[in-house]
């Protein structure tokens, strides 16, 4: 059976999550799904034993490999590298830390058969984000989501759990997709030539809790997001737009909130 589906996982210092993610993913895919699916970790030279972990899984027969980048660093560029190396026509991206349940991957692949792009969404009835998220993270997350509203109809464009049909990536103009920001799904939703008459697929999922390793979210990532938003607004609406002005007003408020938080904790 040939590979038609690829799962791409950006990973930095995620050794302890590699085995549970791989075994849970292939179990969820079932026999037939597993035969047509490859799993690719894109690691930025973590040097924490992730490579050996993947080699051990290969010996057990899993179709898994790890790309180790030594000269590049960053979540979005890692995801894009995996996308371009993927053999499948249908590609899913997910985090390594098991906050994105591997058991939801088959639903995302199913959805992708009839939609050009699918988002795993935390904003749907019955699902949600971790109840233990501190207030500041909820505020940042909902503000970030609100600011992306004019760029896409997707309910959760901040999600790192998403998929696309590879042909749309290949149809993008050279140099359009920028891999600097942290929010690669938003970048792709705003810039790919997706057909206007087909909706974005949405699959609800509950955002899990990271139990191993650490989040790489930091103040720097927030600033990167704001820079990315500015670039996407200009791409979509042109430079001289009122929306851009509003964006900067919101950026200012967010920045003040962030400073306020830093002072308190
Ligand atoms: N290769 C590589 N991988 C990276 C890098 N930075 C982060 N990653 C990987 O990217 C995934 C997400 O990083 P986290 O650090 O776990 O992100 P988070 O703060 O938990 O953010 C989550 O929530 C966001 C929405 O609020 C999501 O957009 C994001 O994808 C992630 O799910 C993890 O698998 C992590 O190892 C990097 O520089 N290089």
UniProtKB/TrEMBL annotation:
* Sequence intervals crossing the membrane: 242-261
Subcellular localization, as worded in the UniProt entry: Endomembrane system; Endoplasmic reticulum
Q: Which Gene3D superfamilies match?
A: Spore Coat Polysaccharide Biosynthesis Protein SpsA, Chain A
Mind listing the GO biological process terms from this record?
dolichol-linked oligosaccharide biosynthetic process; GPI anchor biosynthetic process; protein O-linked glycosylation via mannose
Copy the pathway line from the protein's UniProt record.
Protein modification; protein glycosylation
The main location class comes to membrane
Listed EC numbers:
2.4.1.83
Domain Glycosyltransferase 2-like per the UniProt entry, residue ranges: 6-169
Q: Supply the enzyme class, top level.
A: transferase
Q: Name one Pfam family in it.
A: Glycos_transf_2
Q: Which domain of life is it from?
A: Eukaryota
Which GO molecular function annotation, any one, does this entry have? metal ion binding
Q: Per UniProt, which keywords does this protein have?
A: Endoplasmic reticulum, Glycosyltransferase, Magnesium, Manganese, Membrane, Metal-binding, Transferase, Transmembrane, Transmembrane helix
The record ties this protein, via CDD domains, to: DPM1_like (cd06442)
Q: Does the keyword Glycoprotein apply?
A: no
Q: Which GO terms describe its cellular component?
A: endoplasmic reticulum membrane
Q: Which InterPro entries match?
A: DPM1-like, Glyco_trans_2-like, Nucleotide-diphossugar_trans
Whom does it interact with, and what assembly results?
Component of the dolichol-phosphate mannose (DPM) synthase complex.
Question: What family does the database annotate?
Answer: Belongs to the glycosyltransferase 2 family.
State the protein's purpose. Answer: Transfers mannose from GDP-mannose to dolichol monophosphate to form dolichol phosphate mannose (Dol-P-Man) which is the mannosyl donor in pathways leading to N-glycosylation, glycosyl phosphatidylinositol membrane anchoring, and O-mannosylation of proteins.
Q: What is this protein called?
A: Dolichol-phosphate mannosyltransferase subunit 1
